[in-house]
Amino acid sequence: MAQQNPTASADVGVIGAGPCGLFQVFELGLQGLSALVFDAQNRSGGQCRQLYPGKPIYDIPGIPEISAEQLIANLEQQISPFEPQLVLGHEVVNIERQPENSGFHLTTADGRCYAVRFIVIASGAGAMTPVPLRVAGMERFLGRSLFYHVEDPEQHRDRVIAVLGGGDAALDWALALQPVAAEIILIHRSGRLRAAADSQRRYTALCENSSAQQMQGQVSGYEQNAAGELSALKVQCADGVVRRVAVDQVLVFFGMSPDILSLRDWQLDMERFQVKVGTDTFETSSEGIFAIGDCNHYPGKRKLILSGFHEAALAAFAISERMQDGKPVPMEYTTTSPTLQKRLGVTVS
Q: Which ranges of 188-325 would DSSP assign to H, the alpha helix?
């Protein structure tokens, strides 16, 4: 591949901006290391923000309960003192090792190049692509009346919205948008939903007091008005009748399809679809490339956010030692270390 001048550089490139990738930035920052953070999605947060922003999480140490959305917001606030460079909406498609162990060049899908000394892969299940609504012609409304995620709830204010799907993401957003929408209609192919029981109870209560609707069926077609805007869906219902449902917008939550092909292309030792790592440093089979979170594999691996946080800490220490030519990194604590407190921007009286 032809060499090109890097667009930006940092000590470490973190591939993936989910909770583990964000916490990796924090641990690197404590070591005085700068980070470039890449994600194929145009927002940080990974599956937490894409699939179940309102879902409660109960196993983060010291936090009895927190929503996935709030966890991401807290992590973003926590890493802000380190001013990471975020490259969102651009998937990393190539990793090229530079001569004499001088680091790597990462190339994104738009052709831009970034220079880093080390890499941490925190890509979770891989780049996530929404499972599409397969109704011919509907794609023309994408970004206008057809959406696969919610960026700004105000975009849906006073609209009649059909939410398609029966999992956590569909129920979470149906509940979140109900106060701002003119009307919410949940459409699922089965009468049996797959969302959390509490979400189902809350949505059923809304239906019972006529504040929301639920239909069993599949979208088979649509109608548009004279201006070419979406005006209705045709729904093949469980009783075999095709019904017309007037809507302004459609939100589709059929799940996400992971793409891990890039991991295979990077010549890393794999265990099925995960990257093999050592548990002392979480380095992969390729020197200078580390992997944390759901994308990695080692004996006893558990796919928990808190496990990924632990892995991020050890990876940061290992990278810091490499940056200092193997010199041991002294153990310091944020409660007492003036160096760490200065990096955090903490003022201690």
A: 197-208, 261-265, 305-323
Residues contributing to the annotated binding site for FAD: 20, 39, 47, 52, 92, 128, 294, 335
The pLDDT of residue 151: 80
How much of the chain is in helix, strand and coil states, percent to nearest 5? Answer: 30, 30, 40
Same domain, 166 and 123: no
pLDDT at residue 10 in the model? 98
Look up the domain containing 83 and give its range.
Answer: 8-128+257-344
- What residues are designated binding site? 20, 39, 47, 52, 92, 128, 294, 335
Work out the pLDDT band at 272, boundaries 50, 70, 90.
confident
Residues 189 and 230 in one domain: yes
Q: Which of 48, 122, 37 is nearest to 88 (CA)?
A: 37
Q: With bands split at pLDDT 50, 70 and 90, how would you rate the model's confidence at 150? A: confident
Q: Which residues contact 83 (CB under 8 A, 6 or more apart)?
A: none
In this structure, what DSSP letter does residue 19 have?
Answer: H
Measured CA to CA, the distance from residue 243 to residue 226 in angstroms comes to 21
Write phi, then psi, for 279 (nearest 5 degrees). Answer: -85, -5
pTM over 0.85: no
